[in-house]
Amino acid sequence: MRERIEAVIRKQAVRCDYLDVRVEEEELQSVRMRDGEVDGIKRSRSVGGSVRACHKGGWGFGSFNSLDELEAYAARIVDAARAVGDGKTTLAAVEPVDTVLRARFVDDPRGHSMDEKVDLLRAYSQVALGSRPEIKKCFAFYFDSFRVKTFASSEGSYIVQERPDVAIAISPTALGDGLTQSVPVSAGSTNDFGVVLNLDEGILEKCRLSAELLKAPKVGGGIFPVVIDPHLGGVFVHEAFGHTSEADGQVDNPRMVEIFTLGKRFGSDSLTIYDTGLDEGLRGHVPYDDEGVPGRRTVLIREGILEGRLHTRETAGKLGEEATGNGRAMDYASAPICRMRNTCIAPGEARFEDMIADVEEGVYAIGSGGGCGGETFTFSANYGYMIRKGKLAEMVRDVKLQGNLFETLKNIDVVGADFQIHDGPGGCGKMGQFPLPVSHGSPHLRIRNCTVGGEAR
Amino acid sequence: MPRARESSTRTASLHKVEHSETRGRTLRVVRDGRLGMATSTATGDDARLVEMAAEACAWGPEASFQFPEGAFEETRHLVHLPDDHLPGLEEMEAWCARCAERMRAFDSTLTYEIHGGGGEVEVEVANTTGLRRACSSKEWGMSIVVTEATAGDIFMWYASASDPFADLDGVDAWMARFLEDFSLNRTVVEPVSGKIPCIISPNTLRPILAGLLSGTSAVSIHEGLSPLKDRMGEKVLSDVVSMRDDPTFGLSSRSVPHDHEGVSTRVTPILEKGVFRGFVNNLKYAEKTGTEPTGNGFRVGGMGGGTQLDAAPSVTLTNLVFDGGETPLEELVASVDDGLWIEFAPDAFQGNVSNGDFTGGIRVGQRIRKGKRVGRVKNLSISGNIYELMAQGKVEASRECAYPTAGGKTLWTPHFLFKEANVS
To answer: Which residue, A32, A227, A267, B95, has fewest beta-carbon neighbours within 10 Å?
Structure first.
């Protein structure tokens, strides 16, 4: 295969400024279970490739899954790039790399039988369904996959990476009084089947919370000091800030570049945000991105000051900055675009007790029920507690947080020391590419004057 | 075999051309009464595909349903585009260039991105009863997004077209509407919040319907999670709410003669004047709920719910079609003394969907004062419960219906006026 890919590149690279070829093979298996019974089981095999070319600033991209078509596609894609290019190709420089990266497992999911995986899901479902009378339903999902990705470019890179993936989600559901409530358990990894084991205790705790939520009142709307837990903090930093840090939303827009001028203050001294592809084992681990750029840790905000942004080679080139290894593609059929990896708020020094100690009335929001970002963001917590006179008080449901990104970053006044990373199934969606595996992490955060959605009190 | 072609214009220069082609086979096998599934996009891989599917049966669910029976039938080139014409790259380039020209003439300082793309999906379904059905559909779209960023305000305005333009005059007319709406939104006004009247556009209705669509799905009815379980035949919403699943309506990619299980599609009334009349299903949930198959088993996934080869056939609507109300849209707006027109709230599907709850940020909303839209509001969100907001006396529907201006043609709906929506 290598000879063939390199021959194609040699032949077509003389006709364009830049060319890369990606080829992927993947095997995946998944199990869905409802109430302890298998609801669906799937095995899939995916093979395909893509060619991407740039000429005078114009791009051509094509994907296919008959590798016999590689040569023909390469010629067509270079033709397309030549047809639309009428400017200058500006790609940030990267050193050519010739390497093979084998997966380094703690525990390879492929070493465990399907029997074991199905039994595991069934056992978890039974733990949930037998835990409390209110838990009437349990949905469980497991998948593992193993992908081999090959990247070759006209600049001399030839990178083969093995990319395993494993994840699980268990959603116990409590029913009562016309309501349903569910607080899920999830885990994921790129190198360790062990993360899906020994979840019983966590499931029992989520069953208790789901049942208690049936009796909890809705949170009252208003503006409060809000403390968010590490899981929700991670979703916040990904959705609200991470996506605005992706340079493809800034690069051709001088006004956006001005708003995101490096060196500007975006938050308090206690706020540091980074994105990294270096954390082995996390689903956001990206040793080399889909443009052959090595993973690195990119600080976006350091002690409140904007320090960096997330780049593809093109956005970095256009802004005169270094490539950051964020050119990622969902699969061989998708072109690399600017995406996050493991995006985190760095830990501070505060203890949780101290964060709530001086809160007269506030909300403690826990877990993520989804969220969307941008300048105006909205997030749902799984559940929450009121904070009254410095102590946690009654449980509340339907906790939704909203706000303006820039104001909220400035309103983060206390950052906890208790940093945690969350991984699970699913991923990030952008420009039709979903779900791309990502991770996120954060400690507890306190936000002054945060709008809690809900009916006005 | 989905194919796609796309061109992209970014700030006045044609930037990118994409072409993707994926072929594959999905096999469902029943062995010893159990169902297994496997998918492959590898060529010449049939033996491995059969082996994977057969192996999966060992752990698979009980195959409680029968595959549909039939004979060979083929439907090619379903007319989902006027004149069955899928625009080529040169046409799209010309249209993108015209849009760029109009943008520059309007305001040369604005940043914008224009995409044009089309695709053809061919689906063939065969099973051991002898059934073999095949159809292909074509879809095309063009979208534009403009970003106007100033300190403290990043405003994005977008629209899409689903029908190819007849000529450049058609492009001009589309751009004129787009820029007129954009202009209205350039003025930012004081927000209004509380329990207020809100006009819900087709773009906004799509996400906030998640709870109602969940509640009227065979899955949640069977699982007992739907607030509408055991309420068939009862009046559950206002009599202005009538909706049906209609594969015969319009020209969308879901206007197809059969689903991905080979079952013929058909019109399924869901709500008639607020009365719960029915729900759609796939083969599995038809059997579980004791209803006739409705032809709604589609392999979908990813963002936007497009055809996804390796997905199991799930219960999926074809075209969701609402009846219009009696009041002209203009009069609905005129009836609002102080409220909002919510054009885009794309993430308003969050919350406890099973209960019908939703919440989401208002990406683009305009304040209505004394019956007129006066300018854009910022930093607001809408939340509520779809069953409560569409209850008798709490909602009105415009006489006119429309497709959403972004996101395709699988929804046809009036604008709704929620009389007391919670905005904060």
So the answer is: A32
What is the spatial distance between Cα A79 and Cα B383, in angstroms, rounded to a whole number?
50
Contacts of B35 in chain A (CB under 8 A): 41
Check residues A204 and B149 and name the one with the higher pLDDT: A204
- By C-alpha distance, which of A235, A243, A220, A204 is closest to A369? A235
| Residues ≥6 apart with Cβ < 8 Å to A209 | A183, A382, A383
- The pLDDT-based confidence of B3 (bands split at 50, 70, 90) is very low
Q: Which of residues 297-326 of A touch B (CB under 8 A)?
A: none
pLDDT on residue A77: 94
- The percent of residues above 90 in pLDDT, for chain B, comes to 60
- Distance, in Å, from the CA atom of A368 to the CA atom of A455, rounded to the nearest integer, reads 20
What are the distances in angstroms from CA B17 to CA A329, B118, B291?
16, 12, 46
Average pLDDT for residues A383-391, to the nearest whole number?
A: 97
Contacts of B362 in chain A (CB under 8 A): 376
Q: Rounded to an integer, what distance in angstroms lies between the CA atom of residue B324 and that of residue B88?
A: 36
One-letter identity of residue B286 = A
**Min Cα separation A171/chain B (Å):** 13
Contacts of B149 in chain A (CB under 8 A): 253, 255-256, 258-259
Q: Helix, strand, or coil here: A6?
A: helix
- Dist CA B366 CA B345 (whole Å): 12
- B383 and A333 within 8 Å at the Cβ level: the answer is no
- Residue pLDDT, tens place only, A184-237: 999 999 999 999 999 999 999 999 999 999 999 999 888 999 999 999 999 999
CB contact under 8 A, A42 and B195: no
Q: Is the pLDDT of residue B137 over 90?
A: no
Decide if B195 touches A, using CB distance below 8 A: yes
Query: Among candidates A394, A391, A386, which has minimal Cα distance to A353?
Result: A391
| Structure-token pair, residue B18 | 């994409």
What are φ and ψ of residue A80, in 5° steps? Answer: -65, -45
The answer, for A217 touching chain B at a CB cutoff of 8 Å, is no
What's the start-to-end Cα distance of chain B, in Å? 46
Non-local (6+) Cβ contacts of A426 within 8 A are A167, A169, A435
Which whole number is the average pLDDT over B60-74? 85
Amino acid identity, position A177: D
For A416-427, b where at least 16 C-beta lie within 10 A, e where not — what string? Answer: beebbbbbbbbb
- State the DSSP string of A85-119: --S----------EEEE----SB-GGGS-HHHHHH
- Return the bridge partners of A161, or none: A101, A149
Burial of B130: CB neighbours in 10 Å, binned 0-12, 13-18, 19+: exposed
**What are the residues facing B146 on neighbouring strands?**
B112, B157
| Rounded distance between C-alpha atoms, residue A382 and residue A353, angstroms | 21
> Among all residues of chain B, which has the CA nearest to that of A52?
B18
Phi and psi, residue A308, nearest 5°: -160, 180
- The C-alpha atoms of residue A59 and residue A17 are separated, in whole angstroms, by 10
Q: For residues A42 and B29, what is the distance between their CA atoms, to the nearest angstrom?
A: 11
Nearest C-alpha of chain A: how many angstroms from B336? 21
Q: What is the pLDDT of residue B1?
A: 39
